Each structure stands twice: as C-alpha cells, then as structure tokens.
Amino acid sequence: MLDSPEFTRFIFLPEPAQQRSRDALDRLLDAGEQLLAQNAFEEASVAQIAELAKSSVGTFYRILGDKDTLSKLLLQRFFLSAVSTINVLTDAEQWTTQPLQKFIQALTEQVAALYQGRRGVLRALILRASRDADFRDRVHQLNEHIAASVVRVLQAHQQEVHHPNPLKAMQAAVHILLGALNQHTVTGNLGHLSQVELVQELSRILVFYLDIHS
C-alpha cells in the first residue's frame, strides 16, 4: 500500500493485530463484493453483511465502523488490483523480443480477467463517480496510469505500428479497450461472446486499429 500511487489511497485502515480479525475483515470484504455483484449492497443492512460474512454486527463495527468504509475499501481493492496487474504486465523487459501482437493479446486477456465478475464493483464505481468529483478524478487518474503504462510498451515497438498518427492512436486504443470492457461488464452487451471470444475479438480490433505488423 505504501508503494501504491496516491490516487489508489481512499482510506487508511490499520491492519487488525489478530489473525482472527484479519480473517473477519477478508470475509466482510468478500461479502461486500458479493452483494455488489448482486446489486444489493446499498439496501443491505450491516446485520445482513455480517451474517453473509459469518461474522457479527459487533465485529463489523469494531473493524470497519460503517458501511461507507467497507464501500471505499472495496473500491480501493479494485484500484490496487488494477494497478498491480498493469504494472506487472507492462514491465518492458519481458516484451523486448516479443512481437507486439503478443502484448496486445496479453493486455486484453488480463484486463478482461480483471473486470470479469466485477459488475457490482464497476456499478458502484460509476455511481460514486457520478456524485463525487474527487473520486471521479481518481478514476481518471487510474485510467491515465493504465494508458501511460501501456503506451510505453507500445512506443518501444513503434516500428510495428503503422497507424498514420501512432501516439494518438496508442492512447486512444487503451481507452477503447477499457471502455468496451467497462460497458460489457456493467451491461453484458457482448454476452453472446465467450470470455475467450471476447478477448480474441477485442485483440483483433486493437491490432487492426493500430495497424500492427512487422
């Protein structure tokens, strides 16, 4: 957490000293994410969340204090997961001798995997961004962090990109991918495709858009 970008730090919650409390916190986070996935988080009471987590109301309040803290922790967990995934993926050294199409495939696979099953989290993200300017700015910073990290890898293989305006196209391509996956995750509008087919088709779109070939 200390090495994470500032925009991922929504809230600081000291790690519980006892393993039993750490386990309870993990279960409460999992319960919160399950309720988000069911679009039932806003209506759920603290007692319902605690019951789903096989915990108690007293433990919930002792560890978290309130539901908003849980909501922020869930969004923070998603941001940290996204940053970690992208940072590992865009370590340039691993792509030095690889064709750019392989990177595009890996990028699409890993971002799609990050979003898969996160419909509730993304809905909560959109809802909070619509009413909280500071949070909306954090979302923009996350997207820009992802875009900048990906573009660095693309630029290292610029000789394979034949779009007439490579840099602008590289930046746009990342946001096209994020936008498509965000829309699909929330609405299921590409539900006629399997996960494998989804990755294949989005990868194909990016390769053709950037006009990638050796």
UniProtKB/TrEMBL annotation:
InterPro entries on file: Homeodomain-like_sf, HTH-type_TetR-like_transc_reg, HTH_TetR
GO MF, one annotated term = transcription cis-regulatory region binding
SUPFAM superfamilies, alphabetized: Homeodomain-like
ATP-binding as UniProt keyword: no
- PROSITE patterns, alphabetically? HTH_TETR_2
- Where does the record place the HTH tetR-type domain? 22-82
Keywords annotated in UniProt: DNA-binding, Transcription, Transcription regulation
DNA-binding region at which residues? 45-64
Which protein are we looking at? HTH tetR-type domain-containing protein
Task: Tell me what organism the protein belongs to.
Answer: Paraglaciecola psychrophila 170
The organism's taxonomy opens as: Bacteria, Pseudomonadati, Pseudomonadota, Gammaproteobacteria, Alteromonadales
